[in-house]
Amino acid sequence: MMILLACVGVSELVRQLPAVAAFNQDWVDANTRHNGFTGIAYFIGMAAALTAIGLPRQLTAFLAGYAFGFGEGLLYSVAGTTLSCAGVFWLSRIFTRKALRKKYARKVAKLDAFVAIKPFLMTIVIRLMPFGNNLATNLIAGVSHVPARIFVTGSMIGYIPQMAIFALMGKGILVQSYWKIALSVGMLGLSTLLGLYLYKLYKAERLVSSDDQSQQHAPTTKSTSSQSV
User: Fold this and answer.
1) For 188-208, how does the pLDDT look when each residue is reduced to its tens digit (9 = 90+)?
2) Distance of CA 79 to the CA centre of its chain
3) Distance between CA atoms of residues 31 and 88, nearest Å
4) How far apart are CA 171 and CA 154, in angstroms?
């Protein structure tokens, strides 16, 4: 909880930084649009750097849609956000894992148990949710036992639906297409419902798994008791 609150506070401070405040439609017009490969590389680099310190990935997707259109905008914003995810994950795993696991051993154990069953699916579910803190998720995942490849790949896939929505919205703003904006809002609702549905499936499977484990232990316990008598 403390990590989450700290990350939320950092994200709010980051939004006040001049570099973040300048990352807007005017910056896109001046540095990326109609600037070829240099503009694309510049945008992905800025998106990765700023998302790593707390910039909302939805804003990155919106600006990418505005700058490059829906298809390319989605590709470049997901690329930048995935690079950010991998970077923060490894920084957390290399430099803070040992200290945080020692200080918050019980909480980290709960997190490990949460992602133990199908970590790839759970990573996608987390990314589909419209709420939550991207920076905190990356940091906490680095402390946990979730494999890096599974987390980063699952995050990349989980980013796509929501970032597609905001890229489409950015494209709609550019061409003043109100139906695209309305479609984006509808897709956001569907993305949220999909995330909730997958989370319910996960909870149901975990409950079944717990029941199976209880049944497996029960005969062993009974047999041991009989032998003792």
Assistant:
1) 666 667 666 666 766 666 555
2) 13
3) 26
4) 26
The answer to whether 85 and 157 have CB atoms below 8 angstroms apart is no
**Cα 36 to the center of its chain, rounded Å:** 29
- Full 3-state SS string of 96-140: HHHHHHHHCHHHHHHHHHHHHCCHHHHHHHHHHCCCCCHHHHHHH
pTM of the model as a whole: 0.73
DSSP sequence for 207-220: HHHHHHHHHHHHHH
Per-domain residue ranges of the chain: 2-209
Q: In the chain, how many H helices and how many E strands?
A: 12, 0
Q: For residues 65 and 195, what is the distance between their CA atoms, to the nearest angstrom?
A: 23
25-52 pLDDT, tens digit per residue, is 788 888 887 888 999 999 999 999 989 8
How many other C-beta atoms are found inside a 10 Å radius of the C-beta of residue 223? 10
Enumerate residues 6+ apart whose C-beta is below 8 A from 116: none
Q: Which residue has the tokens 């970032």?
A: 163
